[in-house]
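Sequence in, structure out. First:
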Amino acid sequence: MKEARQKQRLVEEKMKRLAEDTEALAHEIERLQAEMKEDDVSFLMKHKSRKRRLFCTMEPEPVQPGMLIDICKYLDSLQYRVWRKMVTSVESVPFSFDPNTAAGWLSVSDDLTSVTNHGYRVQVENPERFSSAPCLLGSRVFSQGSHTWEVDLGGLPSWRVGVVRLRQDAGAEGHSHSCYHDTRSGFWYVCRTQGVDGDHCVTSDPATSPLVPAIPRRLRVELECEEGELSFYDAESHCHLYTFHARFGEVRPYFYLGGARGDGPPEPLRICPLRITVKEELDG
């Protein structure tokens, strides 16, 4: 701590001056003891001059301000200031990937915030797992309120991002019942797909045309449950891509991650961390 080091230096300087004064006083005592062995007349003559010299010594140096450590500076609202620093160093996401729903192609990271397509691998069967396509769901269920999340797509060649309506009979057959992941079966999303004239973005509504804007590398999703709106934006250019209007009911975030086209390592799809802000107000 800088202030503590400064105070320590001041204390050390004072201790050094006190040591020097103590040493000078010790020498004076030695001379006095030596003079006391001389005859009385010589001793008294020297003692008079010594009294005048000691009488004219300087007054003690006053204590300088600022010698004490500013305790309030370090202990005032200590818990709150430590918490604020922790908020800036800890990342939080709006939801995580649910590995129990991940198809055999997909591998979810240990922190549940990214997923990669490593090719098909045999997984433990369960009713929640996708089996017909490399898909998985987010951990949260949305049915009311406003919700926003962003997804880092990077240069992934094939992906889908959106929501899927929960099935009432999902416990029996899971999500493998439908090969048509589109609006007809309760899937609302935008995706990157390969066309004759190159890659482009389309929606899960078969009646819509390909989207005009460039393929995003970071996608923002905004869900308004009461208004029945699901909107997609390019998070980097802030360009609106598409908005669905429907009665969604209970939905979960939905993702599809196709395989890599080249020989390089597969890229992950990531959920972006939230931007956390702290607002300070007077109580009451």
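Second:
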Amino acid sequence: MAVTEPLRRRFRLSVALPASLLSEVRSLRDKTVKAGFVGRALAVFRVDDVFIYRDLYGLRDQDREASLLATLLSYMETPQYLRKRLFPLSKPLSYAGLLPPLRTPHHPTASRSDMVEDGEFREGVVVSCRGSLSLVDVGLEKPIKVHKRLRPGLRVTVRLSKKSGSVYGEHVSRTVPRLYWGYRVIDFDKPLGILVKTCGDALVIATSKYGDSIVDVSERLAQSLRRSSRVLVLFGSPREGLRDILSRESLELSRVTDYVVNTIPHQGTETVRTEEALYATLAILNLLAP
């Protein structure tokens, strides 16, 4: 059986995770391991954006825990050869060695110029700039030249070209590669209701054990996915479901979403952890709209 390429989805897939996602585990080590499971799920199922919303907005300051989750997920998504440039040593990354590798298309392992292909895409960081010429670190023996003025320290996507044994780069949009190119992490410092409104015309899917069974709505949901250009999937917190979280904004779950779905019908445990719901839900969406 042939292995299929990890192509970009036809629609942009975003997920909304609560800032309190890591709150149930105490130690930084265990929080890091849990974030690793989440990051792998995002990459395996080709998520484009992950929003970290404030599920306890107005009740307590969640900036610190949201920042930790955002840092760990961003670190995972960054190619290994760029991490030292983009992430200085800090306490939140004390156990970063426990985070599993993503092995996505934008995490290449080749580190020699003679191993790259003409037209290959890579992520890089601008090292320096002089006039209209920038030097960009793309994980090879030395930075490559890009004929465009770019801000030092900026992370960029480049298309490589080989001429006379040398490698050059062309700055391109992150959306140009046809393969899945990782996820963006957005630390959204507002409540869930505002996030949903911000996403405008996205198809909004809420996960809840009180929702319609996925068995009953799968065909209709698949049709909606095929018609959508953007999909936003909402997940509750370790202690509260989406209904309770939105009720503090005087919002009804069914009125701000297009679907409220139970993606684990007949669950064998009293509760389902957020990261477990993440895997189950994204796996189903991947089946309905690959």
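Remark: Residues 28-44 form the longest helix (17 residues).
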